[in-house]
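Checked the freezer inventory, then went back to the computational side. Two predictions to log before the end of the day. The first one is the construct we discussed on Monday; recording sequence and tokens without edits.
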Amino acid sequence: MHLPRLRTVIPFAAACLAVSALVALPAQAATVRYEAENATNAQGVVEANHLGFSGSGFVNSANAAGPYTEWTVNAPAAGTATLAIRYANGTGAARTADVAVNGTVVSAGRSFGPTANWDTWTTSTLTAALQAGDNKIRVTATSSGGNPNLDYLDITTADVPASECQAEAATLSQAAVATNHTGYTGSGFVDYVNAVGGSIEWSVNVAEAGSHTLTFRYANGTTVTRPMDVAVNGVTTGMSFPGTGSWDTWADGRVTVNLNAGVNTVRATATSSDGGPNVDRLSVSGPAGPDGQPPTVPTNPQVTGVSATSISLTWTDSTDNVSVTGYRVYEGTSVVATSPTAAATIAGLAAGSTHTYTITALDAAGNESGHSAAVTGTTSGGTSGPTADQLLAKVTTCSQISNGKYKTDSDVSTATVAVCDKTGAVFWKGDMDIDCDGVRTTQCNENTDCCFLPDTFCHTTSDTPLNAAQLPYMVVPSPSSIWDYRTKGIGCGTVVAVVYNGQVAYTVMGDTGPSGIIGEASYRTAADLGINPDPSNGGTDSGVTYIVFTGTGTKVSTIESHSQAVTLGRTLAQRFIDTN
């Protein structure tokens, strides 16, 4: 639905050294949180109308047997893991569900007992065997009441006696960081260019000289083996990386080498014209490997101050068998701050907005603790902005500026939607189709969306496609003789108020669609408005009003920052009310 853009190749240089563990090394033994609102949900909607949830919402399933929530979770190694399902059940009766791992039910008819009310959350904990790599964990309702409200799934795995170095944090040549395939760990993977000589170079620190195993986690979606030379401190060994079935399927390639005590250089260089495979990470293990014990979980998290745009936190220091080197602050599964001490301030927030955080500790070897208890704070000031009714009262009549009208879908026979002009905005009223283009996620990919494209017209500030499953954005028709959005100064990052069923969602222009069709928004926009976001059968046929603000000061500076869109959107919406 848009013109593809060329990706920018950015050089990265970060060593997998103990001194840089805060940036370069992921968790080895940690509790990882997976929010329900980011999972695959069948017959369930994301809501935020009860208190105490983590992340940006929770999942409310239909009142029937069969709805499910399914997470894709990654285990660093095969073994037993602890699964903690956080839920709320404000009824007086238990709700039952089957919990399945990779298609096998591991807890049949599991009882999720009642909680005091829908604002009270509790955790149901079980253990299950996970395979190394990706695992599908599904909670399926087995009673007519459906699932309880589901907040998140915490996965705790055993220690892995290996030092893990993300490829995206290494030094790259003729290769770039990418996120357009699923199943990677860390913040992305490395995609070689199709040429001889591309390389990824890590600096690896081990405690003692001797034999170690290098494990490369890679994907090769072709049927042709892609060889590479692996040079350790200048000594080269050839390795083959055969096809893995698809670019979303990851496998491990291993080689045994001798490492020196201290810092070692490991370089993987493509030797064929096809380049190397996609590389996710390098794991280094051995009888004298690095510290594998994580710090203790941070305790006593507290909000110590708020402003209109920030929340300040403190917590009690963690301990470690060697030393604690720093902390990460999470909002849901996203790291929003790092700190070398037991305090942090999260800035750039919307006034009057509420945020829930957890904290983890890290040591010099890159081990990450489990998550602390959650702490919630609300920024000062702010307003919820004009109501849906106030906005709709200003768009009851249309001064048409489009040269004709748009269709709502390609298969309808009549064009019925006009673009209308107002002071400080244009608007139209119609349907909502689901845009799932951009970054591949569990919700948005070739399997969930027949028309999926791995790019969006607008890009983030780091020049990557937008994430339709996480970012609320809307779609404008590509310029045509009907209307050219650019004539009104509209572009990437322009703020839009989307009104539906008494609700207002502030989004940004993020993508362009067919030149003759109007009425489309991202998976996240639909979910936030209570519209079925499934790209295969979701959306709504009518009742959606799009108010696109025009004039100066109507674009956010960081398109991927939803808080910016909300803050600016409330201001622009009030100005729209006042001037019309």
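The second is the one RB wanted added to the comparison set:
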Amino acid sequence: MNNNRGNQYFERFRAWLAPYYHRFKRRLGKVWHRYQLTRWLITIVLAVVFILSAVLTFQAKTANVGDLKAQLEKTTYIYDKKNQRAGSLYAQKGTYVSLDHISTNVQKAVISTEDRNFYHEYGFSVKGIARAFFLLAKNKLLHRDYISGGGSTLTQQLVKNAYLTQEQTFTRKLKELFLSVEVENVYTKKDILSMYLNNAYFGNGVWGVQDAAEKYFGTSAANLTVPQAAVLAGMLTSPSGYNPIDHPQAAKERRNTVLGLMAETGAITEQQAKAYQQTAVVTSDTYQYNDSYRYPYYFDAVINEAISKYGLTESEIMNHGYKIYTYLDENYQSSLQTNFKNSYLFPQNAADGTKVQAASVALNPNNGGVMAVVGGRGKHVFRGYNRATQITRQPGSTIKPIAVYTPALENGYFYDSMLQDKKTSYGTNHYTPKNYNNVYSGKVPMYTALAQSMNAPAVWLLNKIGVDKGYQSVKKFGLPVTKSDKNLALALGGLSEGVSPQQLAGAYSAFANDGERTEPHYIRKIVDANGNVVVSNPDVTSTRVMSSKVAKQMTSMMLGVFNSGTGATAKPYGYSVAGKTGSTEADATGDGDATRDKWIVGYTPDVVLATWEGFDNTNQNHHLENLSGAGVGPLFKTEMEEILPYTKQTSFNVKDASTLAKAQQSDSSFWDNVTNGASSVGDQVKQGVNNAADTVKRWWDDAFGN
């Protein structure tokens, strides 16, 4: 009864709607006929197809397909500053062998399983494409934005692995199709099959049929038997699922399926297939991986720079056979890596075993080239966290030469100018910097304030010259500052963002290089697999930060840091080093000496070394002790003692400021003696005064230039 009533309502609705529908249909027909919409629709579809084809053809033609074989055959190598091979990068490729050295059993098994029409098609399969379109339509109806498979020839699989992502989308499938045609235009079938077999993944981190043969059967690719070849061919669809070491039963079943397919294509007879199917799968692992990723943090940094500065992708860098020339000094790098493994050079771990972390970077101040870098202690993770380049920590007192003393010299102060050393409050917020241990001397010469890392004189001096001058100086040195840093805390390293050891080393390179700073960088040149130079003149920024005269005066004062100041215990035996120490307080620990960061940055005319120590996460249970900046001394001292013997050992062209000051005081004493006897010596007094003044002026000019 209810169904009849429902049908009646539906029929009434249809009867009501019918006149409107017929009227709309007639009008649509007239419009469609009048404006010839069928032709327009066909034209639009053809135009879209044409434009899409043109774009994809252009992409295929500009993909450097002609370089593909060379890229797959060669490994990407890193070269040091002497153009010596320093190591190679991890790569998704194995030992490359020619097709003549790959058993025909493998070739037949792969073709029978993966692409029976390989020798009769031109990069793509019409049936496969039709199947792919069918699956696309099906997945769209099911609201799935991917292709479930189908349509992949060996050439397409090669292209997908070499050029494209594994994302299964229709756009990627179209790119794959056009690239496959271009590959077929450039290479023979023999080349394509060889590249495919050498670039295929076989599980357990093994790429290429040669290494797979050694990994699973202890033989070479040339000697693989039919059953062994069938096992490897069967793994191509699921390298982990059909792995004969981890899944022997699944591997055997898959092998038998492949043997059946080989019989279907005539590669072997039915009788041979049945006989082989009865045999056991016997594995033997003789594969040895040669890890030449010898300098992990340095190589990581090279990869990062190639990506960020020169537009290469990680996959291209790792797999396209580049030669990358760097500033690496293998002696420096080896010594740094060895030192980071020696626990006696570091403070004790936390009570829960957490290691004190550290980072060091050494660079050439003359060109900004990074010669060595280590970004942490413990196990290295590929392209993982590199503290030398990525941490952002407060620089503490290492910023004083940059934010305070350099702009002070530029604004009329001298190395021996007397500075106020008193506990003083500034501004409406009563900012009150304190010296270590709350010791004050009333007045102190600038070179002493710097060498002993006194806080009160530094803040007093920044207040005198103006915070903006200090802020602009920090910017010129290349350190990251924001407008919120325009306050007196800048004198003590109170930055909102913080700095990395590499940034700090780059800033100090200006002192070592007569006032000119060059942005730290790793790469000198990149050459592709065919010998074409991709990068020849690195995109590097050089900036004149200060005059040569000011740079020399700053070096003169910073020699005192290691001769008699806070870095004295870190001074490398037998060498003169200039630089600065620094440390930052650990807040909310309840310990007055709790320290978050410890820094030492030192330099000679040949090298700048910046070293940091601290915990990744500082809290009550994870902090350093002793706020004095010398805590990182054992590591820095050892590093410098092992690096400096390999440098040119260029001497500083200035003396320690305290030595100059003592000489000047000696001349002043002589002047006092002369003036005390003025009544008896008359004209000799004037001559003595003039001689003393001339002597001081000559020493000053000799030390720092005009």
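For RB: Residues 7 and 625 are 88 Å apart (CA to CA). Residues 9-62 form one domain. Let me know if you want it refolded.
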